[in-house]
Amino acid sequence: MSIITLLSDYGSRGSKISKAKALLLSEISTSIIVDVSHEISPFNIVEAAYITKRSYNNYPRNTIHIIDVDAQYNPEKSLIVSYFDNHYFITADNGFMSLLSKNLKPKKNIEITFDREENSSSIRTFVKAAAHIKRGGNINLLGTEIIDLKTFIHLNIKTHSNDTIIGHVIYVDNYGNVVTNITRDFFIKFSNERNYEINAKNIKFNKIYNSFNDAINYKVKREYREEDGKKIALFNSSGNLTLCIYKSNPKISGGAGSLFGLNYGDSISIKFINS
C-alpha cells in the first residue's frame, strides 16, 4: 500500500485540509494519507523545507510527498514532480527543492502539464499527479522534463573576516525554540576549536550544549539547580543551532522566540575569539 504525505500552510481552521483529503480519496482510496503539518507559516517555503528535511527519510522509498506551500500556479511558477533521494516530491518550482539539500540534486524534474485545468487549485493538479504515480504511471507522461529548478538564495549563511558566522532564524517550533540555519558541520569546520560568543539581538550565549540533559547539572539537588527558564543553545537532532529556554511554555510564560524577540529571518551571529 502506497503512502502519500501532505504538508501545507492551510492551517487547522476552515475546510481546505478535508477538501484535499477528499480529492485524494476520490482518486486513490487505497493509499495511506499522512498529515505532516498544516501549520506552516503562510507562503514560507524555508519552514516547509526544514520540516520536510526532518521527516521524509522516515518513510519508505518512493513515498509521494505533496507540499502545497506558496504553490499557486502562475506564468512564473510551474507545478512540478521531482524524484529526489528515492522519493517523489510534488510541489511548485518556487525554490523549495533547492532547500532540501545543497549537495544532492533531484534525479528528474517534470513540469506538470498533464490534465491541468486552467485556474484550478494547485492541490487538484497535485492529486492527479500523485494518482498517476501511485498507479505506476511514468512521470515523464505528466509533462515536460526540466533541468534547472529555481534556487532560493535568501537567508544564506555568510562569514566575515574569518571570525564571524552570520545565520538566520528559519523556524520557531511549538515550544518556542528558535531554529537557525547554522549547522553543526558548518560551525565545526569554521571554528577551529576557538572560543566564541553567540549574539541574538541582545541575548548572548557562550556555550553550545549537546542536548537538554547536557545543560542540566544533575549532580546538584533539584532545588538548587539552574533549570526551568535557563537559556540554552544546542544543536538539535537535525544539526541546526537552536536557541531555547528550558521547559518554557509559550502560551503561559513565553518561549525563546517571544522572550528573545526573535522571528523568522532575524540574524544570528557567532563571533570567534582569535587567541
The third-level CATH topology of the largest domain is Rossmann fold
Report the strand count.
15
H and E string = EHEHEEEHEHEEEEHEEHEEHE
User: From the 3D coordinates, which CATH architecture of the largest domain would you assign?
Assistant: 3-Layer(aba) Sandwich
Main beta sheet, described? Answer: 8 strands, antiparallel
User: Can you say what the CATH homologous superfamily of the largest domain is?
Assistant: S-adenosyl-l-methionine hydroxide adenosyltransferase, N-terminal
The helix content is 10-25%
Pick out its properties.
single chain, 275 residues, alpha+beta, Rossmann fold, Elongation Factor Tu (Ef-tu), domain 3, 2 domains, eight-stranded antiparallel β-sheet, seven-stranded mixed β-sheet, 7 helices, 30% strand
What is this structure's SSE topology?
Blueprint: E1 3-8, H1 16-27, E2 32-37, H2 45-55, E3 64-68, E4 79-84, E5 87-92, H3 96-100, E6 108-112, H4 122-134, E7 143-145, E8 158-160, E9 164-172, E10 178-183, H5 184-191, E11 195-200, E12 203-205, H6 212-215, E13 231-235, E14 240-245, H7 256-260, E15 267-273
Helix pairs in contact: 1-4
